[in-house]
């Protein structure tokens, strides 16, 4: 269950898109995106705007079956436009999606790419899709000559949005398809292995602490009720700021070494204690859907 409300997700799709749009001002749209190899800034924005419009079609038509996703992945045919036009197009798509979500309500039956089957799934998914691609745009700004845009305005996510994004990630990571798609994770399962992600900058009431267990038959996760609730330390423990933990699980910063560009002071690498190969194997397994 999402920790943020449906209405908040609808609002954040628009708000996060507006924040990303500010990265386009004065930017070179042909600049490469270091965290999305082969993509330019223009392609990144077209991909995200296409994803918004794809999801809007699903919601507006109450689609019961998969909808063609050409808008999401086939962005090569778009003519070059200026940053202002592209930014306006992004904002328009986000607003259309938010309007469609509000009109549908959270419980209408619709097709979803993962368990859920309601607009609530898409509201949450598109919120965090937008957050992560906003980070990608920040990396572009940071690698620009001088890098001042990245240094002056480093990527950050407000606490409740980041917590909800990590909750969503953990939920995806516990789906049976994870083991079916990446069988090598089975080598680490059923041995009592656990991973723990702890935010270093969250308020205590946020409970920004995630424990993943690699059981014999399933990957499960939970939030420990308190930092001292566990009888034994995890096999691998990851400490870092909420924004950094989010960037780590999405493959935007590495488990070893520095981030690909100076996004801001304190951004990566996170502190990892214990079995790093276990963390690498888990990250590879649960991120399979990003590689499709």
From TrEMBL:
SUPFAM superfamilies: DinB/YfiT-like putative metalloenzymes (SSF109854). GO terms for molecular function: isomerase activity. Residues 11-137 form the Mycothiol-dependent maleylpyruvate isomerase metal-binding domain. Keywords: Isomerase. The keyword Flavoprotein does not apply. The keyword Isomerase applies. This is Maleylpyruvate isomerase N-terminal domain-containing protein.
């Amino acid at each position: 269950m999402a920790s943020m409300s449906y209405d908040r997700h609808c609002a954040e799709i628009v708000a996060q898109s507006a924040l990303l749009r500010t990265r386009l001002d004065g930017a070179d749209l042909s600049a490469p995106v270091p965290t999305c190899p082969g993509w330019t800034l223009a392609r990144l924005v077209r991909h995200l705007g296409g994803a918004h419009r794809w999801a809007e079609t699903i919601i507006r038509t109450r689609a019961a079956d998969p909808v063609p996703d050409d808008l999401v992945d086939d962005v090569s045919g778009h003519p070059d436009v200026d940053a202002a036009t592209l930014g306006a197009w992004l904002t328009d798509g986000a607003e259309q999606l938010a309007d469609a979500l509000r009109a549908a309500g959270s419980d209408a039956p619709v097709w979803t790419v993962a368990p859920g089957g309601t607009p609530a799934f898409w509201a949450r998914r598109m919120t965090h899709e937008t957050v992560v691609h906003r980070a990608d745009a920040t990396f572009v700004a940071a690698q620009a000559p001088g890098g001042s845009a990245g240094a002056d305005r480093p990527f950050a996510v407000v606490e409740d949005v980041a917590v909800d994004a990590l909750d969503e990630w953990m939920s995806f990571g516990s789906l049976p398809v994870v083991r079916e798609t990446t069988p090598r994770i089975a080598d680490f399962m059923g041995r009592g292995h656990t991973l723990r992600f702890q935010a270093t900058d969250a308020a205590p009431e946020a409970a920004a602490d995630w424990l993943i267990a690699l059981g014999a038959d399933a990957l499960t996760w939970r939030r420990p009720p308190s930092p001292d609730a566990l009888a034994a330390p995890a096999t691998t423990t990851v400490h870092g700021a909420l924004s950094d933990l989010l960037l780590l699980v999405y493959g935007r910063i590495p488990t070893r070494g520095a981030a690909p560009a100076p996004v801001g002071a304190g951004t990566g690498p996170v502190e990892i204690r214990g079995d790093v190969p276990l963390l690498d194997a888990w990250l590879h397994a649960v991120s399979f859907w990003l590689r499709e």
